[in-house]
Hints:
The structure is a single chain. The protein is an alpha/beta fold. It has 3 domains: 3-63, DNA polymerase, domain 1; 89-297, 3-Layer(aba) Sandwich (Rossmann fold); 315-380, Orthogonal Bundle (Arc Repressor Mutant, subunit A). Helix content is 46%, strand content 14%. α6 (65-74) crosses α19 (346-358) and α9 (127-142) runs parallel beside α10. 44% of the residues are buried.
Amino acid sequence: MDRRTAYLILNCLPGIGPGRVRLLINACGSPEKIFEATAAELSRVPTVGNKLARYLLDWENFCNPEQELRLAADSGAALVNWEDAAYPAQLREIHDPPICLYVRGELETLRDSAFSLAIVGSRRTTAYGMRMANALATDAAHEGWTVVSGLAHGIDTCAHQAVVRSSGRTIAVIGSGLYHLYPQENLGLAKEICEKGGAVISEFPMLYRPDRHSFPMRNRIIAGLSRGTIVVEAGLQSGSLITAAQALEQGRAVFAVPGLADQPFSQGCHALIRDGARLIEKFQDVTDEFSLLPDARLASRQAQELKEAAPEPPLYLKGLEYRIWESLEGGEMTLDELVNLLDEPPSTLLPVLLVMELKTAIIQKAGRIITRGPHKNIQKSTE
Length: 383
């Protein structure tokens, strides 16, 4: 078993979360060696015990890696684990970062999400809340920030839509597998986010259906991806308050938009302000909080100029990787066409294609369409 497959399986198993995975890796030496351990060795790992050890030993009853990769490829999604360069550095810093992320859309947006802000709020909202969410998200996009939200009805939807209209970048974190995107009414919005350079991501396996536990888990990722969380409108029972609480726990900034004193959708924001959240009325209030940080647009522009000035280092591909890259010289191909041309089964090609996408050698689009990626200095490995 290779390391990528080991991470995929660990992400699928019930009861085996990020904390236990770290303990298991410390005890066994690596993700793949976990599946070589005996029941006695596994059960001795703190917090694992006999029940979870049995899950690890009987992993084939809970996860079909080949099917999972096929479903991801069919939806145009890449699978990123916490060792990959595409895994966001800010998210890796939280105490329980997701083991894997399923990413549909631009991996580059996820990789370059250092200047990200979450904009969240109530599903049931007012015209005022929608107006504020739209203004804040639009200004954030114009200032070069990536906007993170949860694709839910109400404030989340408004924030995503405003960024898309502004030709900015937005990341939608969902509380289900990508195959069962929730809410279904936002399927078109999710597609537009991906087409406009953003991404839709989930830590849950492809076929996972949303439940009451998955949304609080999703909220920690929204907060973890972001330098700060803006709560636009929220009642006292709003899930966005969970996101704000997790942002505070992670040491990130929390902002709240004030509302009318007699409106229930204002009570959550006012409670946050009383507890120390920064009151904001416009996006400039947010940028003032980060005044000691480099300007997002300037940092992005300088990074791009340096990238363009420096020669691109060679990317070495070996064996099947280089054969695939050569096959794409004439343009994009479908997975079926590559299977026929290279005489290799999908089960062999899919994991190689995923690794190549993470290296930016190729891009996988929806419908199993593969094309060469942005990396131009490709060379054949002599190893």
